[in-house]
């Protein structure tokens, strides 16, 4: 039969959170026959320059979907914390489904730190950062107070239209998280346990059983250990945010 191809606006967007496993989730979703996923982060709604190019530009950035791929998905983790994005998406894509993946904010902060440290050799240690007076204003720490940002999204989207993925469980038992995501997206339960294996060479992260089925070298990096004092300080800091998140999102992940 004839194969048609086209680009369409996304029906679902992974809006964040940075360093919580957004790439892994998108890669896993890409093996579903109904999905067409963008290979790069589009940054349409959060970039003044891209946003002025308009919706046709945005559509043109989308992957080419074959005729059975009726669900286009993009991911731009910065959307979650951007002030303008919730209203813009609500206005331009009123029916879109949103996916938010969340990790233990302490691990997320270390991951963010490792990425920065990789680019800046002389950067202080993580413990040194947390011992500074104004450490709560440091972006890698602030982002982990997820409830701050979620509140903004809930002004524009009903909770039913936002799906929360447990980023810790996505590493341990990805098929469980994928089952709920597929249900949320209203697509068949195609991605299952048999599609995965754990890569003993890379901190045991899950990969897909296919060529290039693991994430690249910038994912699954080595994390430095942090002091007990730092950990306790962050636990105290995040406990209120986590409690607010549980209530706002109506979720109860094990690390919350
Ligand atoms: N399957 C699999 N393979 C490799 N890495 C995995 C996987 N699942 C989740 N993760 C975790 O994802 C972290 C990167 O998150 P993101 O993809 O959201 O990062 S980014 O915001 O796009 O930069 C990445 O952070 P680091 O461990 O700091 O590299 C991983 O901990």
Q: In CATH, what is the class?
A: Alpha Beta
Order of helices and strands: EEHEHHEEHEHHHHEHHEEH
Main sheet makeup: 5 strands, parallel
The residue fraction in helices comes out at: 25-40%
Descriptive notes:
- The chain is about 40% helix and about 15% strand.
- By secondary structure, it is of the alpha/beta class.
- The chain has a five-stranded parallel beta sheet with strand order 3-5-2-6-7. It has a two-stranded antiparallel sheet with strand order 1-4. A two-stranded antiparallel ribbon has the order 8-9.
- Helix 8 packs parallel to helix 11.
- 3'-phosphate-adenosine-5'-phosphate sulfate (PPS) binds next to helix 1, helix 5, helix 9 and strand 9.
- The site of 3'-phosphate-adenosine-5'-phosphate sulfate has 18 residues, from helix 1, helix 5, helix 9 and strand 9.
Topology of helices and strands:
Elements (H helix, E strand, L loop, with lengths): L4 E2 L5 E5 L5 H9 L4 E3 L10 H4 L3 H7 L3 E2 L4 E5 L9 H8 L4 E6 L2 H15 L6 H5 L8 H4 L3 H8 L8 E5 H6 L1 H12 L10 E4 L5 E4 L19 H22 L7
Parallel strand pairs: 2-5, 2-6, 3-5, 6-7
Antiparallel strand pairs: 1-4, 8-9
The protein binds 3'-phosphate-adenosine-5'-phosphate sulfate.
């Amino acid at each position: 039969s004839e194969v048609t191809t086209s680009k369409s606006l996304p029906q679902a967007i992974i809006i964040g959170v940075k360093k919580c496993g957004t790439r892994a989730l998108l890669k896993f979703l890409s093996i579903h026959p109904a999905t067409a996923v963008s290979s790069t982060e589009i940054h349409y709604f959060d970039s003044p320059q891209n946003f002025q190019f308009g919706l046709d530009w945005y559509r043109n950035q989308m992957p080419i979907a074959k005729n059975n791929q009726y669900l286009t998905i993009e991911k731009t983790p910065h959307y979650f914390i951007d002030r303008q994005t919730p209203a813009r998406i609500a206005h331009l894509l009123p029916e879109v489904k949103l996916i938010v993946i969340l990790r233990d904010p302490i691990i997320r902060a270390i991951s963010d730190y490792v990425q920065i440290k990789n680019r800046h050799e002389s950067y202080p240690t993580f413990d040194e950062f947390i011992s500074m007076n104004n450490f709560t204003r440091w972006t890698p720490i602030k982002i982990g107070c997820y409830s701050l940002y979620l509140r903004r999204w809930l002004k524009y989207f009903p909770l039913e239209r936002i799906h929360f993925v447990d980023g810790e469980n996505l590493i341990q038992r990805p098929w469980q998280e994928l089952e709920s995501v597929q249900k949320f997206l209203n697509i068949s339960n195609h991605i299952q346990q048999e599609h995965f294996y754990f890569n003993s060479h890379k901190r045991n992260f899950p990969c897909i059983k296919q060529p290039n089925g693991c994430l690249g070298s910038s994912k699954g990096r080595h994390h430095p250990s942090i002091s007990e004092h730092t950990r306790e300080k962050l636990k105290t800091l995040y406990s209120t945010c986590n409690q607010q998140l549980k209530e706002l999102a109506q979720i109860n992940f094990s690390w919350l």
